[in-house]
Design brief:
Blueprint: H1 6-13, H2 18-39, H3 47-58, H4 63-74, E1 83-90, E2 96-103, H5 106-119, E3 123-124, E4 134-147, E5 159-161, H6 164-172, E6 177-185, E7 188-196, H7 200-209, E8 212-223, H8 231-245, E9 250-255
Antiparallel strand pairs: 1-2, 1-3, 2-9, 4-5, 4-7, 4-8, 6-7
């Protein structure tokens, strides 16, 4: 459960109807604008912006939408300026949540998040009482496929399958990598690479140099200690997380439930 992420949310929404895709593009545009606002509009100089743009491209977001979002964010202050905010909460039996949001109206967001929490038996926690239980990590999800040519950014680059175990060994050999695990999502083989926040950019660049397909790359929050819940209680926490993630202002929900 602690693995709930923006990447997972985007993947779940990819097959949605046009209206849902519109909502996805809105969220992606918001992430791009926020990254440009915080670090400038040049993706070569702003690693966070580069990752946000790559997510937009992966979701088939139109180029014009991406460019508008970058310009909006790089324009600085103004009406509807976006802000990042995190809420801490407690759910079943001391299970802890962090709710990361991006919003242009903090009053609206806090009201909606509180309504969702209280409607499912959870409540806000005192600021700082939950945050210390988590640490930020870099998560890079790799597909065991390699670009056949160096032209990685073609509209439809040609990919070839490579041995997953051999790739995992190569990834483990990269300086700064803390853990490598082989996963599967909807029948697709994936390799998850975990690194510290400080080594995230360096490791990402090293993986790019390997010429393999990167499915996603983002900062996540992982719980230092996990909480075990019964089947029924865990199901209720999952429903709470999904309800929070449905809110347009919510980017990610992190949990310490195992």
């Amino acid at each position: 459960m602690s693995g709930h992420s923006k990447w997972a949310k985007i993947k779940r929404q990819k097959g949605a109807n046009d209206a849902r895709k519109g909502m996805l593009f809105t969220r992606l545009a918001r992430d791009i604008a926020m990254a440009a606002s915080e670090g400038g509009g040049d993706p070569d100089m702003n690693f966070t912006l580069r990752l946000a743009i790559e997510k937009g491209k992966e979701a088939n977001m139109p180029k014009d939408n991406i460019e508008r979002a970058v310009k909006k964010g790089a324009g600085g202050a103004g009406e509807g300026k976006l802000a990042r905010i995190s809420y801490e909460a407690y759910a079943k039996d001391g299970s802890a949540l962090i709710v990361d949001c991006t919003t242009d109206n903090t009053n609206r967001t806090v009201t909606e998040v509180k309504r969702i929490l209280e409607g499912r038996g959870a409540k806000f926690a005192q600021q700082g009482s939950v945050k210390w239980q988590f640490e930020e990590k870099g998560l890079i999800v790799v597909v065991p496929k390699k670009f056949k040519t160096s032209e990685k950014f073609n509209k439809e680059p040609e990919l070839i399958d490579i041995d997953k175990e051999s790739l995992s060994l190569d990834l483990m050999g990269i300086e700064g990598v803390e853990d490598v695990s082989e996963e599967s999502s909807e029948g697709i083989d994936l390799i998850e690479v975990l690194t510290s926040k400080s080594n995230f950019k360096k490791v990402h660049e090293a993986i790019v140099d390997l010429g393999v397909k990167i499915e996603s790359a983002e900062l996540i929050k992982t719980a230092k200690d996990k909480v075990d819940l019964g089947v029924e209680d865990k199901a209720q926490v999952v429903e709470l997380i999904e309800a929070l993630e449905e809110n347009d202002d919510v980017d990610s929900v992190w949990s310490n439930v195992s």
